[in-house]
């Protein structure tokens, strides 16, 4: 199966990050095309996000120029909610897509 590259997500407040899962990413399961991922790799957020810090890969101290390994799915959901929901992008299967509802009451 061909590895899918998920489009970078952008949240309502402008926060963005890459969220990937495949056989070549720090994800669980570490396979291509899984029905559900319970942990994913986050890469290169556009600003520091403290919820990601425990998952930082290596000793790179620039939080916007690194990847975060095996980030649990529930942390991704919390991040999306914290930043107002998703306005664009894609998430791997198994992670709820919290769509932003800008201007709706």
Give an account of the 3D structure:
This protein is mainly beta and 105 residues long. The protein has one domain (9-88). Helices cover 10% and strands 21% of the residues. The protein is built from one helix and five strands; from the N terminus they run E-E-E-E-H-E. It has a five-stranded antiparallel β-sheet with strand order 4-3-2-1-5, covered by helices on one side.
Brief summary:
The protein is mostly beta strands and 105 residues long.
Class of secondary structure makeup: mainly beta
* Helical segment count: 1
**What is the average per-residue confidence, as pLDDT, rounded to a whole number?**
94
> What strand order characterises the main sheet?
4-3-2-1-5
User: What Rg is obtained from the alpha carbons, in whole angstroms?
Assistant: 13 Å
Spell out the helices and strands N to C. Answer: EEEEHE
Number of strands: 5
Largest sheet: 5 strands, antiparallel
Helical amount? under 10%
Contiguous runs where pLDDT drops below 50 for at least 5 residues: none
Question: What is the end-to-end distance?
Answer: 42 Å
* Count of folded domains: 1
Question: What would you call the quaternary organization?
Answer: single chain
Q: Which percent range describes the beta-strand content?
A: 15-25%
Q: Give the overall shape, derived from the CA principal axes.
A: globular
């Amino acid at each position: 199966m061909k590895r899918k590259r998920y489009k970078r997500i952008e949240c309502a407040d402008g926060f963005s990050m890459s969220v990937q899962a495949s056989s070549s990413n720090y994800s669980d399961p570490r396979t291509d095309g899984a029905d559900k991922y319970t942990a994913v790799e986050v890469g290169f957020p556009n600003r520091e996000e403290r919820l990601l810090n425990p998952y930082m890969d290596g000793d790179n101290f620039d939080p916007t120029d690194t990847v975060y390994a095996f980030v649990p799915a529930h942390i991704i959901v919390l991040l999306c909610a914290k930043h107002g929901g998703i306005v664009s992008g894609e998430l791997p299967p198994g992670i709820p897509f919290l769509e932003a509802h800008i201007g709706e009451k």
